[in-house]
Sequence to fold (294 residues):
Amino acid sequence: MEPGGHKFEVLFDYGEKNALADPAYDIYGPVGFPDPPQERPWTYANFVQSIDGIASFGGKHPSGSAIAQSAEDSWLMDLLRAHADAQMIGLNTLLEDKRSEGAASRGPVYAIGRPELLELRKRLVRGREKSIVVTGNAELHVRDFALFDGDRVDAFIMTTKTGAEKLHMKNTPAHVRVLIAGEDRWVDLKRAVALLHQELGVRYLLCEGGPTLYGYMDRAGLIDEKFVTVSPVEIGEMVPPEQQPVALEKHEKVRLRPTTFNAPGFTIETAPWWRWMSCRKAGDHQFSRYRRKR
Fold:
């Protein structure tokens, strides 16, 4: 059955063919990937945004699912997870997603939920699911998050030497492996993805965001492709006065909602251009795929 009552309607697709035949592809069509570079993983991102380019309502509804409200978008995320050896998540995204689920929540696990896509992952020989949480300051207690329990996915922390020292002082469980790419405050993302390739054998990496991690990955030239779901809703960049801020937002003088790129941008000379690889629709949602021009 289709994920939400709609089958993806392929408008055009210039991507690679699927690596194998599988019933899961009957819903979406081809989603093949090229061979990765020798020194790092082939890295692709997935985002949902409003038609005016906003990635989050903020406040009590910070997650992308509040914008998407689409079973097809959720299904596509599982499809992309099925093809990834590992997925990369920024600490702020982990914290926001935990907060959005309520005070009693230990946060999401970011694991494939659909049996047919778990089966596809097995057939693709991607191994056990891996999640890499990226943080320079390591301001987290891993026992507060279900992601690090280790029962559904293998979770890693990519941090700096300073961050690793903090995690050691917080008695981080031994089964949570800490990877070091950087010295003090900032993770060296080029070193990080090379380390994932060398240490964990990651050939295909899914960047799940959020916008800050994605923006800095893109600035470093490390994003090869991006999948973008455009939800048929208009939100606006400025937070309206009637929206009540959560505690973390109350100190902000100007309250702006993030786009999918929340990092210093580019000049006209350095801005990357992308090739529009495919486009689908399901209901009133648009699903596009872009590949960076090298």
Remarks:
- The chain is about 25% helix and 20% strand.
- Helices lie at 25-28, 64-68, 71-83, 91-100, 115-123, 161-169, 189-200, 211-219.
- The domain at 43-262+275-292 is CATH 3.40.430.10 (Dihydrofolate Reductase, subunit A).
- The chain has a mean pLDDT of 93.
